[in-house]
Amino acid sequence: MKMRFLTVVAAVALLAACSSNEEAGKANTGAGTAAATTAAKPGVVPGSQADFVANVGDRVFFAFDKSDLSAQARQQLAAWVVFLKKYPQDKMTVEGHCDDRGTREYNLALGARRANAVKEFLVAQGVPAASLKTISYGKERPAVLGDNETAWAQNRRGVGVIGE
Fold this sequence. Notes:
- By secondary structure, this protein is α+β, with helices and mostly antiparallel strands.
- It has 2 domains: 2-37; 49-162, CATH 3.30.1330.60.
- Helix content is 54%, strand content 13%.
- The chain contains 6 helices and 4 strands.
- Strands 1-4-2-3 form a 4-stranded mixed β-sheet.
- β2, α5 (104-124) and β3 (132-138) form a beta-alpha-beta unit.
- The longest helix is centred in the N-terminal third of the chain and has 28 residues, at 2-29.
- It starts with a helix and ends with a strand.
């Protein structure tokens, strides 16, 4: 009976000690309260990648083996322009992606043409070229796995990434 009581008391003391040390560590670093407050706030930070994805949309799509912008892509990119002008401090990386058909080398070149087409449109609409960079991932980073037109269509894309 005494042993059980002592075990329970020891367990409670151990848990209390861990809790106190954790709080003391947060107080010493100054990160505990700020991080908890930030994480507890609903919504997203204006001008962030999360804001861009949620309120604008971070991708445009391309036809098979093409790097020219469709009317729908231009409409989406016009929304990117508004966002980037609203947050001129933001930098963006434009990623070019392809479906998995074709060679690695061909798809890297096609992805580069797609990323550059997006960048050229944004610059033509007044976004400073210095705030944009491009990268091609070719077929290396598919958004959707599968060997059918639905998957391929989702993988032929340009993606805007804020803060890179």
